[in-house]
Specification:
By secondary structure, the chain is mostly beta strands. It contains five helices and 33 strands. It folds into three domains: about 130 residues, Cathepsin D, subunit A, domain 1; about 120 residues, Acid Proteases (Cathepsin D, subunit A, domain 1, Beta Barrel); about 80 residues, Pdz3 Domain (Roll). The relative contact order is 0.17. Keywords: Hydrolase, Protease, Signal.
């Protein structure tokens, strides 16, 4: 049986790209002191974020492992370490917002027994939604991982890092090609999208473990693909915002709720994939795909492996959706987008969410909401709202569709 979280709270948290001026700067610097290394590391999963132990200056730290971005440290850690500043650049987060931030060089980052030297890292301005809520000092990104292969095993909640991919028991039949970005080695993989008539669209997407979803369709990719072949079934469209990046909530824009009849990922087939468009240039896989098999990113040979659990190569993902999505805005949990337009006379964008079913958000702070994994396995539920215009309290019944 499919279960839905109380709401999908999309925090696409990391810096997806550097915005270069006339002189490009690459984060693909640094190296590992070790050779012929292999280490298996446990991770803690909180709201789809993979948190690992890292040692910097012989101090144990907690970092989020985010393949869809560069290595990042918090402003507090920057003040503590006083690392060498390499450059200041404009950086775009995954909600589309930009900021100017320094890049520093970390003299040594140790993960288990593997030591990485002179790793460039972006210094983030303090963001409660990330550093405080998840209790981390930064992010391990693909620029650090670029000379390794990394395997994710959701069953054992472990990550294996090695410079010898042949040690990972990989099968060629599970492999697909992978491309790395020139600036920070973000991994891109190819998928096929098909409609019921058999029409096919091929898409290059980012593999981003900083995203807690399964597959998120870029609004730009959606518009580009439908010019050639329409493999999508539009369930709903609406204007609003339901994602946030490290620089804050995304601006309101037109979004689509989409059903994809068939998605092929290497040899795996996913049927009836429901997704919602996002603001970034590239679509992405998030950590949600890890529940379906061992995933290996072989940065060395530029290969992407999906080894399904229990040899299950065909999976149906069809599930019903709630008719609204929320967003955290100025520490308030509010309605960000309304998918079912029949609710437009009852619910407004910006209405504060007081309760949803048995979830009392007045008793939760923004961190509690961000990290909540509470699931409501119901077809309908009552939502209690504070009207954004009048301040009146109202109750509305929501039905999945």
């Amino acid at each position: 049986m499919n279960k839905n979280k109380h709401f999908l709270i999309a925090f696409l948290m990391l810096y997806t790209s550097l915005l270069f001026g006339q002189e490009p700067f690459t984060l693909n610097q640094g190296f590992s002191e070790n050779k012929n290394y292999v280490a298996t590391i446990p991770y803690t999963e909180i709201a789809g974020k993979l948190i690992i132990n890292v040692s910097i200056n012989n101090q144990n730290r907690k970092f989020i492992l985010d393949t869809g971005a560069a290595t990042v440290i918090s402003e507090n850690l920057f003040k503590e370490l006083h690392p060498k500043v390499l450059q200041t650049v404009n950086v775009s987060d995954s909600s589309g917002k930009t900021d100017s931030l320094p890049i520093v060089s970390l003299s040594q980052v140790t993960i288990n027994s593997i030591s990485f030297k002179d790793i460039p890292a972006i210094v983030s301005k303090e963001s409660k939604i990330i550093f405080e809520c998840f209790g981390v000092d930064g992010f391990i990104g693909s620029n650090l991982l670029r000379n390794s292969a990394i395997q994710f095993d959701e069953k054992t909640k472990t990550i294996t890092i090695t410079d010898k991919p042949n040690l990972l028991n990989l099968d060629k039949k599970d492999a697909g090609k992978m491309e790395l970005s020139s600036s920070q080695s973000d991994p891109y993989v190819w998928i096929k999208l098909k409609n019921e008539k058999g029409d096919v669209a091929t898409e290059k997407i980012l593999f981003d473990t900083g995203d807690d979803g399964f597959y998120r369709l870029s609004i730009n990719a959606y518009k580009h693909i439908i010019k050639d072949v329409n493999v999508f079934e539009v369930k709903a469209k609406s204007t609003g915002s339901f994602t946030a990046g490290i620089h804050g909530s995304a601006e309101d824009t037109e979004n689509y709720m989409i059903n994809i009849p068939l998605m092929e990922v290497n040899n795996m087939k996913f049927k009836n994939v429901i997704t919602k468009t996002t603001y970034t240039d590239a679509s992405r896989f998030g950590s949600g795909i890890l529940k379906y098999g061992k995933i290996t990113l072989d940065y060395i040979n530029k290969k992407f492996y999906v080894q399904p659990f229990q040899n299950t190569y065909e999976i149906s993902l069809q599930k019903q959706q709630w008719p609204i999505d929320p967003v955290l805005n100025n520490d308030k949990f509010v309605v960000g987008i309304i998918w079912d337009q029949t609710l437009s006379q009852k619910i407004k964008k910006g209405d504060e969410i007081i309760k949803f079913d048995n979830m009392d958000y007045q008793k939760m702070n923004s961190c509690d909401i961000t990290k909540s994994n509470k699931e409501i396995d119901k077809q309908k539920a009552i939502i209690e709202l504070k009207d954004a215009q009048t301040g009146q309290i109202k109750e509305v019944e929501l039905n999945k569709y």
